[in-house]
Amino acid sequence: MKKLIGLFFLPLIFSLSSCKDGGVTAIAYVRYAPQGEEYFHYTSYMYPTSHGHIVVYDNEEEAQKEYGQEAIMISFHKAMGTIDASDGYKYILSDLSERARYMQVYLYKGSELYSASKKLYLNGVELTNPSHTSDLETLVSYTYDFPNFIRTNPNGHIDESLVNTIEYK
């Protein structure tokens, strides 16, 4: 009888512990804040591809070219799509529930936007200490493990004041 009770309660305990966030996937609204003539769009891929989740061009003309060159590409470990929020901005929904979380940023040196003196910012704070940096002839890439994203749906309720803004300036 004790074994039967153990076989019943053990799975129940594990299933309840997995619902610690109310059974809701922890997400962060993430947007890119352009500077000047930059043109950008969000992709709807769940996992990073060769296009990234946020793709930034020097201007709209470059973006409309058949083979337009990206200026910046930003990818996350996993995105749950995009959303148009009531504040007038569009956001990528970055999944915060997985253990392996990262953000990759590719800066193309041939872009008008690129400058070695510019920095990346998340919510107004300069991003420092990337876990990996690669400085090649045509691009610089940074990987940030566990970026300090603010969770936008604490307790399973969307709070649009808890958003994340990425800037390159």
Gist of the model:
With 169 residues, the chain is mainly β. The protein is built from 2 helices and 12 strands. A hairpin with a 2-residue loop joins strand 8 (120-122) and strand 9.
Please count the beta strands (DSSP E, at least 2 residues each): 12
Mean pLDDT, nearest integer?
87
The helical percent reads: 10-25%
Strand coverage percent: 35-45%
The low-pLDDT segments are 9-21
Secondary-structure content class: mainly beta
Distance between the termini: 66 Å
Main β-sheet, spatial strand arrangement: 5-6-1-12-8-9
Number of helices: 2
Radius of gyration equals 19 Å
Q: What would the principal axes of the Cα set say about the shape? A: globular
- Summarize the helix and strand pattern as letters: HEEEHEEEEEEEEE
Largest sheet: 6 strands, mixed
Structure description:
The protein has 169 residues and is mainly beta. It is built from two helices and twelve strands. It has helices at 2-17, 60-64; strands at 27-32, 39-42, 54-57, 72-76, 79-84, 90-95, 102-108, 120-122, 125-126, 132-135, 139-145, 163-168. The strands form two sheets. The chain has a six-stranded mixed sheet with strand order 5-6-1-12-8-9, with no helix packed on it. A six-stranded antiparallel sheet has the order 2-3-4-7-11-10. Mean pLDDT is 87; it is low at 9-21.
